[in-house]
Amino acid sequence: MLEGYRLLDLSSRLPGPLCSLILSDMGMEVIRVEPPDHLKKGDLFREIPERESPYYPMLNRGKKSVTLNLKTEKGRELFLRLVKKADVVLEGFRPGVMKRLGIDYEALKEVNPGIILVSISGYGQEGPYRNRAGHDLNYLGYSGILGLNAPADGGLPVIPPVQIADVAGGTLPAVIGTLAAIVEREKTREGRWLDISMLDGSLFLMGLAFFDWGIGKPISPGRPPISRGAVNFNVYETKDGKHLALGALEDNFWYPFCEAIERPEWKESFGDEAKMRDESLIQELREIFLTKTRKEWLTFFGDHDVCLSPVHSLEEVVKDPYVQERGVLRWVPLGNEKRFPLIRFPVHNEGEPWDEKSPAPGEDNREIMGLSDPEMEVLRKEGII
To answer: How many Å separate Cα 312 from the centre of its chain?
Structure first.
């Protein structure tokens, strides 16, 4: 899909590398531009959470790597030489760093007017928070997502188990924006600078919550948008201590559910928000679900179209027949005989084999930069590569 396009990736950790991984899976050539080892300021995901971390190979499979000390004039010169033949530059520095390095958008488009610069930051390139430090948890806190992710009866907000702001607020907008900018450039021959703020992206996820709040509907912890904690859109425990997710939001799902559990009178409550959120009704359904194991309930509802699903553990996810048949997960080796799962982005080059290998720092210096052995030796001694 994206064969023939080249991206230079200056980013590290999660949002940027995941963005370039998605584009790589769709056929784009991705070149990681990393600092030489002696600077000791490379991607921390090469070493966390442990020395042989699976994070880096998971996020950087199928990419290439060059090393450049961008704080030197020669390093900057070599980078701009790469920019001439690139389509996209991706970075995740704090605002102002690219300018201090002499490789901001103005410098890039001088050598390549069609270059697309994608900048992912916590709070955007402009604004009162632009220089603040932050991580996923902070952006969720500012956006209101974290505040709503708390028990209905009070207590501390619960930290989500996945990086919502990083991925949904940063990575995915960056991918979408990159693809749109490429399409635009096909028409105008001009590049663009994309300012991706993870707080902006997190706020965008709150659209329904803000709408409900704005029109005076109750929105608070334990009462999410759409259902606001209703009986037909909830999570229930089963006899064996496991859980089921019921999503019978519409009447064509709720009515068959009520008939199946022999509670036809519950259908009359549909459409009345107060009745559907009545705690006594929810408690009665809790007690009903506690009469059978999760497996028994799934068998019981097997022929009923009611939007009921198990709440899986990670061990159960990898064994699920859907996951196995769709081929979205693959176990690959990682050094000393360890194996870890890779999840494939759902849009990819169909039929193309996965490239499971991740690059060592600078292993593509010769190929990408076209350097001879004597040139490479000189650059190494000067600490540039």
So the answer is: 20
